[in-house]
Design brief:
Radius of gyration: 66 Å
Order of helices and strands: HEEHHHEEHHHHHHHHH
Amino acid sequence: MVDFTDRLDRYLRQPKDITSFTLANTNILKDIKELDDNIQSELDQLSRLDPESSDLDPRERFPLSREFEAHKTSLDQLRQQVRKSEAAARALDRFLMSLRTVDEDISSIPGPPCSDAVVLQECRSKLTLIRQSIDSLKEKAPQLDLLLQGARLTVTRDGIPASCLDMVNVLVRRLDESDSGLVSQQKVLQKETQSKTLGLRKRTMLGEMKKLQDTIEAQGLKEPTMPALQHRLRALLDLEGQLQAQNCELQSLREVQEKQGGGENLLQELEAQWKETQQAFSDRRKQYSTLLELLKKFQTCRSLLSSTIQKAEQAISDKASYMGKDNLQRSMAKVCDIKEELAGLAGPMEEMRSVCKQLQTELKKFPDCSESPFEAEADTLMDSWLDVTEKTDAYMDNLRVGLELWEKQLMLGGEVDSWAGAKLALFAESHAFYNEQQVLTMKDEIQANEENITHFHKKSIEIQEMLQSQEAPLELQVMETQLRKRLEQVKELFTDCTDVFEELIAVKKHLAEKVEDCQTAVENIQSRINETNASGPNVEAQIQVCSC
């Protein structure tokens, strides 16, 4: 047991020195493995010597068993510590193997000088992949350091205490140095290449910018329409990409020029050509943008004017299938609103005329552009606006007059209806006439109301014409029908009452004649009686003769 402990202590005290990412003592894993095997062998022997299975006296067996178990427990604890150290040693060995692989990968990257830019870039790409491996090892190093520390293993590098992280940083520095060398070589190659191609690049760029300027200035306009302008703007934006590419190239040339010096005159020529090309692009884009904005304003004004004019025309031409008084009032309110909208078009109309003038001015900059119809279209809209405004005013006047006539019709109808109601009530109570004058007066009233109904009908037709309806308003037709019916009722009762009155007059006349005959007879009798002598003979006979 003491031998095992001493061997473990010697193993732990001995630093694990590392050279070139390799353990200097290659027997470290072998030694710890051998110690573990020896402890296991000792434990196996103890298992075979179990005191419980011996024939010793129980009093002698008990102390022996206790010592046996204590020794076995110590061996188990020692074995656990050995295996912990072994695990840490093996983890360190695997980590060192990974470090060696990375170290070999870095060493495989060729160093300068190298005149092939492609090879240099490939090497840098390989270094990028190697850096990823190093980053992974860098994340694992602190954990391994803790594992070694827990196992009481000391690591040195070339005799100097070191950690796993320190060894990773060594590779990081090697990688950075290698990459720095490649970058420097790339810069040298780039400088050489730039020096060789600078003149060619300047000449090429000068030709490209002149060609680009010619292309920009050749961008014309054949049709003054939104689609044509949008197409031209898209084409111009495509050219803007080329312009930006030339700007980047010019900036690159400036940087090269600053580093190399010389060639100022040629660079000045490039700068001047760049400004001309950029100005040509800006001017053309501004022209297109201005035209596009003006066209949008023109279309907005035209849309507002056209929609309002169309709305007014629709309001004038719309005829309700049933034109009641409420509909008439609503139509008046609608037309009144439209009149206000039409009156508010003066500003947009003036704005559209101003836009037309600006469009004409801008389009003169494009000789190939076809003649624009903007002014003619504005004149047409102006004429339509004035015409529909006049029609709307006339239509509003007709509606207003029609409503006034309607109100008068209602008043006239009410008067006739009230008169008819009063006469019907009068005829229903008693004999309506007591003398001939009353009959004549009634005839005049009937005739007057017949004329009122005829006037009512004519005015209904006039309202129909005012409202441009297919027939007279239904409300007035119904009222006229009712008035005519009421008048016919009055006329029928008037005829009946007139007949009764005439019969009464005839009876009165007949009775008057009878009364007159009787009165004459009485007077004759009285006269004869007076002539008869009361004292004379045959008085009674004479009286009888008189009475006959």
